[in-house]
Amino acid sequence: MQEGMLRIQEAAEFLGLSVNTLNGWRRDREGPPYFKVGSRVVYSVEDLRTWLASRRVVPVGAGTPVVGVPPGRAKGAAAAEERQAKEVAS
User: Fold this and answer.
1) pTM over 0.90
2) Distances from the Cα of 32 to the Cαs of 18, 21, 45, 59, 89, in angstroms?
3) Residue 72 included in any domain
4) How many CA atoms lie within 13 A of 45 on its CB side?
5) 31 and 41 in contact (C-beta within 8 Å)?
6) Can you say whether the dihedral through the CA atoms of 67, 73, 74, 79 is positive or negative?
7) Does some domain include residue 66?
8) Which secondary structure element, helix H or strand E, spans residue 65, and what is its range?
9) Pairing of the two strands 5-7 and 40-44
10) Half-sphere exposure of 23 (CA within 13 A, CB side)
11) Which range has highest mean pLDDT (6-10, 60-64, 72-76)?
12) Which domain holds residue 22?
């Protein structure tokens, strides 16, 4: 096996997923990129890291301000209050 390449079991362990999940994603054309080498499927560690990083989620409450919403306020609550204020004003 070439350096930096992982077989399905190793890739699943790297991602903290089951082999069945990776198999299902490949079948459904989802998940991280992979290589077919003959009948063998292999994953690049670099591709797995890139794919994993692309799924990073930063919750709004984690220090990322949302423009127009006071700190500590939920975006949905602020929008609902704005709608109510417009209805009252009309």
Assistant:
1) no
2) 14, 11, 10, 23, 51
3) no
4) 9
5) no
6) negative
7) no
8) none
9) antiparallel
10) 5
11) 6-10
12) 5-53
